[in-house]
Amino acid sequence: MAGSDNRRRRSCGHGRPFRYLADGHDDVSRVWRCGDRGHVMFDARRLLLDLFGLCLVAAAVFMVVSLVTFDPADPPSTMAYPPNETIRNACGAAGATFAYAAKWLLGIGSYVLAAAVLATATRILVRGVFDQPVLRMVGWMMIVAAACVGVQLFDPGLGGGQVIGSGGYIGVTLRTLADRHLATPGTLILIGTCFLAGSLLAVDAVFFQLLGVLVTWPLKLLPRREAAAARVPSTPLVAAAPSPLP
């Protein structure tokens, strides 16, 4: 209590004490208001979160641009010969190195990784929270792994022609382990379960909202179709007049 009273008696420089805006949330907010003038200082924690979110957005854009402009002949890639004398990747040598490593390790899953970084940045910037980072990281890893195994299972030659396969080294390894112990239906069940569990860990409420929309949307269309059918007037049947006898 003494620390709280001392904190509330701080001055803003105009001879008026600060008033704490977020009582009971000392570890979340650092916003103070100056007397009756209503001057508000910056929320240091939110500012750091916003900067972190912007860094993640920049990282996601860098990842996407590097992957889209990937050239197999750019060093250090050995997928094409002869190598390019000048790097053609839009992000330079760093982009070429990242794209080659990501495609070798994850294949098409590298785009899912970029989407995960962008989704995390959006959550931070919009909601201002970065809670349970370890669980969310595990969730996104499960989603990326499911994507790698899925593309490796359905189309191994997809995505730029990397020799190891469209799922990268992770996809090939996990599919080999799955084929050794499971049949194709079991592998599909494992992929779906991994994707759903990862979605629950990574996006929790957003996943439930999206799932609810997908489930309830067809149900909402049924009453509309029934109402539209009820508004259409039915054409009365008119009996044909009997033809006169000759």
Can you tell me about this structure?
With 246 residues, the protein is mainly alpha-helical. It has two domains: 9-40, no CATH class; 44-215, no CATH class. It contains seven helices and three strands, in the order H-E-E-E-H-H-H-H-H-H. The protein has a three-stranded antiparallel beta sheet, with no helix packed on it. Strand 2 (32-34) and strand 3 form a beta hairpin.
Largest sheet: 3 strands, antiparallel
- Counted up, domains total 2
Radius of gyration using CA atoms only: 29 Å
Q: Tell me the series of helices and strands, N- to C-terminal.
A: HEEEHHHHHH
Q: How many strands in all? A: 3
Keywords:
246 residues, mainly alpha, 2 domains, three-stranded antiparallel sheet, 7 helices, disordered N terminus
Topology overview:
Elements: H1 2-8, E1 18-20, E2 32-34, E3 39-40, H2 44-68, H3 92-105, H4 109-127, H5 133-154, H6 168-181, H7 184-231
Antiparallel strand pairs: 1-2, 2-3
In short:
The chain is mostly helical.
